[in-house]
Amino acid sequence: MKRVFLIVLDSFGIGQMPDAAQYGDMGTNTIRSCATSKYFQMPNMQKLGLFDIDGVDVNGKAGPVGQPAARIARMTEASKGKDTTIGHWEIAGLVSQTPLPTYPDGFPKEVLDAFSEKTGRGVLCNKPYSGTEVIKVYGDEHVKTGDLIVYTSADSVFQIAAHEDVVPVEQLYEYCRIAREILVGKHGVGRVIARPFVGENGNYTRTPRRHDFSLVPPEKTMLSHLSEAGKDVIAVGKIYDIFAGAGITEHTYTSGNAEGIEKTLEYLKKDFEGLCFINLVDYDMLYGHRNDIDGYAKALAFFDEKLPQIMAGMKEEDMLIITADHGCDPGYTVSTDHSREYTPCLMYGKNVTPENLGTRETFADIGATVLSYLGVPGEIKGSSML
Length: 386
Prior knowledge:
Elements: E1 3-9, H1 30-34, H2 43-48, E2 71-75, H3 84-91, H4 109-119, E3 123-128, H5 131-145, E4 148-152, E5 157-163, H6 169-182, E6 191-200, E7 203-206, E8 211-214, H7 222-228, E9 232-236, H8 239-242, E10 250-252, H9 257-268, E11 274-280, H10 282-288, H11 293-312, E12 318-323, E13 343-348, E14 355-360, H12 364-374
Helix pairs in contact: 4-6, 9-11, 10-11
């Protein structure tokens, strides 16, 4: 009974891609920035071959082992973009030739007018903003008026922040569904995101009840091919939202990395045949976007510490794949946005022969590898790495 555990370390980039300048990301290198922290320790990932991957540079903090325990590769993003949706879709075999729309000057009047008409509420902000700063600046006015805080970022997102005492969470989710129905076609952003918060003046904080409402992938991904072939497709964390549920047979949300790892350990003990697709979001959400180098390094060390437990739970025919969806360099002070970087891929299992495959042309090779390993045919981009 073959199983694949595909873990995405959200935003764990390993150095700028050749076209990084087109995205304003020259000099970005997430792993190198993290290695400047005294908390950076990844001995178990080192054994698998993380530091043997092409171009990985951690300023001498760790080095290659020469004979990695895993099959390794440096992954190139072929899609136009650097956001979560585009990155995960490409991992699953869908290469996006055109970037999803972004709104550096805010959303157009026709979008906001339609949104206000259907929700019955006004709109505040309508600019790119830090999620923690926007509630500091607009929180009081929102609480006073009931108007919704709408903001975006460098990514293709329409975010709605609302105080849980002003707009109950389920109502906020409904407003997001309304926005999702409006934001299609040329305004088809990758994600509409609910951002509930609590607290009082000067002390507003976001809650863990964030929820993403994504576009449905425009083509079949490996997830649909697997589920249509009768395989299990289990989504852990925000994977279900990223794919709008398409091709997923079972899902569970998590509150962060620790719970995501615990859920992974639980699924290792269960009987199923197919894919368990896990996203560990804290690297990006809590540390990369906040330029928190030490926090990011600690989170990487925590995963590395848990890795032997994950590997010990693997069965004879299991394969573990560890990768990322983009970069988010915590040491890049020019911006707190995602960065256009290569990502690592490490494949481990008793049936997987260790080898350095160099640099691959697309993240989609991961999706093709999963289909190949599980014996499921499917027309997706990418080539198997087995």
